[in-house]
Amino acid sequence: MEWPGDYPRDHAFVDCGISGLPGDLDVQQILRDTEEKLKLNACCIEQSLKELQVKLGDSWTGDKASTPADCLQWFSPHNLSSLKPNCTGQQQLLDFLKALQQFLRTEEEGERNPAPLASQPPGSPVHAVREEAILEVQEVWEDVRLLLRCHLLDRLQIVTDGAEGADEEDDPHAPQRTHHLQRLLFLYPEAEVLSRYRSLRAKAIRELIHSSQSSIPAETGFDRVANGFQAASPTLCRMVAEDLHALSGLVEPPTILAFINQAHLGTLAHELCALMEKLWENALKDNTTPAGKAARSSARSKATVAPQEAPKRGRSFCLTSHQLRCLTLLASALLDHEEHVDELATELGFLCCAGEPPCSVRGILKKNKEDTETTVRESSRCTTDTFFLAPEATALEFDWRAAFRELASPMAHCVKVVLEDVCAKGLQQEEAAHASGSALVAWGNAPCQEGSAMTCPETGTPKMVEKFCSDIIEELDALFPLALACREDSLLEVRASFVEVVGKVTSSILGRLQERARQVFISAPLRKLPALLASVVCVQQRLSHYETQLKDSARIPISLLPIQKCLELTAALQENLIGYCVRVCATCILQDPESHHWADPKPFYEGERCSFSIQMWHYFLSGLRSDLWAVLPPGLAQEVLAQVLSQTLELLVQRYSQACPSYNRTQQMRADITATLLCVEQLMWSVCDSSDALLRPDPYARPCISSIHSLCNQLLAVLAIVTSPLPELYKRFNGGSDGELPSKAHETPSYNQSTLWLRLLSPDLFTGDSARVLVADDLAALGQLRLLSAQPGCRYKMLLQSLLHSDCALLQALLNNSRFLMDDGAKDSLDSQQDGDKIMKPVFTVLSTLNHVPKALSLVLEGYFDKRNLWDHLYNLTVEPDPGWTEPTALRCVKAALTEPINSIVGHLVTMVISWQVSEDLSAPLSWKDVPDSVLSKVPKEWNYTPRNSKAKESSKSCARLLMQAVSFVFTNLPSAVASLPLPVRYLFHVGEKRLSQNSRQLKPMGLLLWGLLSCLCQTLEDGNALMRLAGHPLDRGGRDRLALVAECLQGAMGQQKGVPKATVHKVLQTLEECRPKWSTIQLQKARKLCSEGAFELAESGVALERCSGGGSGGATELTEQKISLMVLEICHKAGGGEYLRQIYHIIQLNEELLASRLSALTGPMPTTTKTPTVTLSLGAPGPCDPRPPFNALTQFSRIGSRDFDQSTISEWSWDWAQLLPSYQGMSQVTLRTLLANR
């Protein structure tokens, strides 16, 4: 570009985060922007070096620099001798220093800036006094430096005190802190400045820790230390962030790490050691007991605070269980603090020392000091003069563990005693409950451990466990942070004790669970067995989590944890549960002699019902499913139910394949098989975890599913051959002469035969024509809904696949039947507005993340926008609504999507204006007043010092330049801002642009999205509250006025100028156009290309919401499981994404019947009702996680899922024999003859 030096702010990288995975056009735009800004930065650096070379050329006596980059060598300490000596006379210099000294002593204000005077003379820094200077000059200069240092340190103290309570990201005093440190580094060497600043920060940290301790007067001892530090931790982290950002541009990264280690981490460890030492002394007086009583079993443990000779004197120091929990709370807070500081330091390494592994790699930040004998208290006694003489740090040193070293043995013993005591009490309570003879199962919610998501996925987490097991595991989790924190050699005793006692405690738990499992078949109810199985799974998962977190230390015998025993017991209990259920069905439920008297010439109940055993079998499996769903992990529950269903179904297949019914009993056999298939169909949705598992089961991954399909097809074959009308059977199978059976040459193609029974039973749940069942192999939207609702829990991938199916038919039905959409009034009621918040925000957040399917959001919202006439509001996003009109949730979500890139751009503009005020506006907070004439008159002429008054006269010209820079910055980053927006949001504006034909003239140059984006940007620039939020502090009137002028310039460029444009605005736009002809138009075209039709088609290439019906060729490819998983990850990585998915799932479960009726109407006529029901959003359900009603023994007996167990309907089931019989023309001759013999 031709203007690299005119607008340097254009080179800044705007932090516009990309939502999800960007499209190809977005990636290309980002790469082009990055390459262009890197080139501009290189040009700007080269120009600055050229200017520097010209300025310092006369002062250099050595070899001339051949390139501008070579002049950087002039600033090396080894080349300072090549600089031309200052020709200022000693008397002139002395007169000036005395005048400055007198001024600093007499003035009480103290706000004087040394930089304008000191920065003019070339040569070495001011703090390097020349050897040839006279002694008097040195004395006066030292006094001046001392006065300036006191002033700057006082200002730093004020800034530090004023920063209390500020947020970590919005620190209004950060520029002032950096400003004062720069001045100090100009006056004094780096080591001395950092040493004094360290003392200042260490003092602030000590005061903060002491104030946090005194702010909790109601608590004493260990409680006060733990809770006090927990309260002070956010402020401590903020102080670390302040110093990291303030020093990152002043000193090298290793020096910064050394400063953080000494000023922050070292001070914290020292103060913590002092506090803990006082606690030990107090606890030694309170908890000391005679040595003879120390051996008693209690919830206390021995501890030695003084040297280890204390036990030899016959006294022992015991920690109580409460004190141990307080220490655990303190260790947990310190671990969180360490992690936060580590993240901050990693960010520093990424930003400031990329390519320098010693201080940019996260792994080395968590350094473990090998020298355990030197405590923090000893290292803190070094003087400030020798503070930075040590080698620069390459890692963060978290020495707070030194405070726990003297308590290692007592804590190890106390951990063992406390956990053993908790285990003994828990087992005693369980034994008492069992001895009382209560038939109720004592359950507790499965304990959740933070950070266990990786080792315990959601689909494998139990929902309920035995109460005593839950109580014990909660105690283990409570003390686990203490073991996690004790990773030093001197503290490994605590970790080893924890691992040992956890192994003993869990072994006791497993022994009790195994003992209770043997009694299930004798005296305990069947519901007890799933609870025991869930408890074992919970123990195994918790042990796996402990092993994962503690395996970094090879010196701890992790093998003591009985994980293998848990796995073996889990497999045994699962096998026992399945075997018990199968035996109950085989020996009791399915034994019905009256129903199975097939040779009886009389019809069974006049042929109007099926066998009692079939109904009871389904009743038993439905109750079993309810018990499994409420207790076991979803994946395990489905596997158990599938095993029971498969094995019991095998018994039924054996029964009916061997039955030889009489003519009058044929109808009963047909009703039995029909009822069996209906029951299996209703349970089949529950045991499959995906549509592929249902339609295309893998015989190796899920053999039970393949077995169930095979058994159901065998039952269907029995139904077709044994119970079909004889004329239909003869017509289909009389394919040869002389009574020969038809050969396989005439058989129907056998692909997709595994799900034949399911398609014939419920053809409305699948896509395609029912007459071509072997071709259509996808679930319809109604089938997806049924599969989703039958799951034991929320499965994100299945939920997302259901939401995107059939052009988002499920979500469209959900929104179209919501109260806030069906309300035709001009004003929304409060309930309608709340409904919009509950539905629209989760739906918008989820769909706006899906860059792979950019049209999904518009498909769902198009009908809503049409009915509420909201397209015009996309054009007028910044127009104030009417007083009686409430802004819909959808519009608020659209504005929120535009907010992030707007805030990034406005944040840079605010920084730009503040920086301009610092350099130009004398009344700005960071500027300084004029130097008095008594000092200016003494300034040597050789310094060429220019007073600031003459510089201020150019303020009007620089203001216009500021406006041009700001407008140029906006247009430069406009394509990047558009690329950061999610593709679904861009497509929504694309659809809206087509609807707004009346505004086509205004939208033609830039499009609706750019119009709305720039309008919201201008509105933000004129909003004082928004500017204050972005700046972190209120802006003065001058800053707000200049940002408002930037908004007017942008409105003028958009053609949205209000009234007559100001002369300044007109001049800015005209000058910018002269400097860059047609440049703003080019930038608008670049940005608009990212929201054109081609961008969305490219993003959706290879992706479709469903496969086209009507054949296997010519259809678009479907969303693969990999793409669905990728989209789920994008949603869950967004703030609140997983919670929004669960909210949608909850609403779908509450309205399953309503949504099913609406989806059924898509393929048939819409039912005429007097009043259309609306979607229910109330949480009046059994539980927040499962809104489905519990199993009702009285009602479920006569129901198959949501349908009634109607005996007459089942007995008179209309089978399409013309479609069913040809499917079995190719069956084995032996099987066919055997079944025909049973007729």
From TrEMBL:
InterPro entries: DUF4495 (IPR027993). It comes from the Eukaryota. It holds the Pfam family DUF4495. This is KIAA0825. It comes from Albula goreensis.
